[in-house]
């Protein structure tokens, strides 16, 4: 390393790296300040210094808040592995000890997954360490378009498989499986079995359905592919968990996950029937970026998620990745 580069590094306030990391993650000054543990004016002052250093705005204001500039996007991809490397470098003990950690993990998933394993995950994490923090980014609509880039910024995504997860730098392991069922009002004229003809003529309540054309990548895609014509959508709602609310008292139908539907089994105004379309089980996968493969804390998180979902898994245990298999076992 040259004397000039050493001098340049010595003139840099490395505390700015911490603020930069959270500003690029959150794209919001107030939330970044909360995550770093400083005041909002202090975070704003740090952003001003970073803008002067890089001669770039990094964050640009729009109608909905802030967006990363092109340079900000480049830095977002670089700062996370750099920050993790520094954390490991200055850690006196490379082993992850949850009982002594206040690390915050960022998990992106749907309210359906949270309804199935969210409480068990919370209890298990708290039992291991009350000081460990969790930020859950609940997906509404569809997942972000650039999943590899997203998984550089968050610790993990729990989602059904999508083509975008086939990127070589991504890893995945199965958490649990589910099957589709149909939920109708208890007073509906349909008897004990619903048919494909019924599904085609009935109005549907569908979750996370942002427009008039249901995308082929949707988890419901295989069910819709088994119909001769697309059903009429009466209600679109950005939540799996509230879907039955819009079925009760109507002649509508919702095709939803059985594990979620079971949580409404005690409601006398709803009935759950087998789905007449023969489709493969719905599989929920824990996805992460390969740069976290050897991170002790991340390995602990993956093991914890596997543990809480173990009762929901069949004997088979496929591992998913872009080019090669990766397992935590």
Topology:
Layout: H1 3-10, H2 15-26, H3 29-36, H4 40-54, E1 59-62, E2 65-68, H5 70-90, E3 104-109, H6 111-128, E4 133-138, H7 147-153, E5 156-159, E6 170-178, E7 180-185, H8 196-201, E8 203-207, H9 221-225, E9 232-237, E10 253-257, H10 258-261, E11 270-274, E12 282-289, H11 296-309, E13 319-321
Parallel strand pairs: 3-4, 3-5, 8-9
Antiparallel strand pairs: 1-2, 5-12, 6-12, 6-13, 7-10, 7-11
Helix pairs in contact: 2-3, 2-4, 2-5, 3-4, 6-11
What key attributes describe this structure?
single chain, 329 residues, alpha/beta, Arc Repressor Mutant, subunit A, D-Maltodextrin-Binding Protein, domain 2, 3 domains, 6-stranded mixed β-sheet, 3-stranded antiparallel β-sheet, 13 strands, disordered N terminus
